[in-house]
Amino acid sequence: MGSKITIIGAGSVGATIAYTLSNENIASEIVMIDVNKEKLAGEVMDIMQGTGFRDPISIIAGDYEDAKGSDIVIITSGIARKPGQTRIELVQTNVDIIKSITPEIVKAAPDALYIIVSNPVDIITYVFTKLSGLPERQIIGSGTLLDTARLRSTLSDYFSVSEKNIHAYVFGEHGDSSFIPWSRAEISGLDFDSYVDFCKNSGWLECKGDPDKDEILDHIHKSGGKIIANKGATFYAVSVSVCRLCSLLLSAYNSTVTVSSLMHGEYGIEDVCISTLNLVGPNGIEGKVPLPLTDEEVEQLKASADKLKDVIRQINI
Fold first, then answer.
1. At a CB cut-off of 8 Å and minimum separation 6, what does 280 contact?
2. Catalytic site includes residue 174
3. Least C-beta-crowded within 10 Å: which of 59, 223, 229, 240?
4. Number of neighbouring beta carbons within 10 Å of residue 45
């Protein structure tokens, strides 16, 4: 397709994104940047040596100036929480990292679309938005894109129906205050509750009984932690989600996805980055889709925003 994508951070997530992209026809040129030059060189060599069975692609270990002309820049840099470290201390550490990266990468690639993946993603997206000086449409936090993918995977398994027929979303913080707007969840054109009734009454559709909405949300909240406990990190699903977002940004038409972006009064929320339904495409974020929510769901979204604002007040930007 002739697109150039730069990935900042060659840790588990950044390297897996690069590997996933190397197996897709999304980019013809990939630049990887990391402060650990030795690991960076190893990741690039390993990925590049597996590309002999596809159309030619360029993958290089570079520096910020090599990002010039990028269509998309993906930022994954950051560290995991250390034993005894508070969440706020972790946030400040990763904020300081994005503060050092921002002027360098924006100088090299001012016209790129930016996908922020570093955690806590809503806070890092907010800091990058405030510091970069870029138009907001160019800045997309991965937000609850992964959470929404987890939700649709869970419902697909529950109802034995393709995820392509499921339109359900996770809104709010990419974290424990996120929620599912069940009032807007649809399966095969039916609202969620109607589909459950249809499933139970049809006799020819497989269904595992009455779904417990609280249990489903709890599963979404705890999936990442369970994966980390079992294998040490999460990187496959988030990488596929980010690569999917790349393909949407490089498409001819817009698509709707749950990503994190700065709020300007939508649902009564201001000056915080949080995930709602956005229209995205080749120009970045075209705007937020005003999905009608119940009063209870609006309050849940506001509570999630307030939690993020409380963190922002405690950090040095």
1. 140, 245, 248, 249, 254, 255, 256, 257, 259, 286
2. yes
3. 229
4. 11
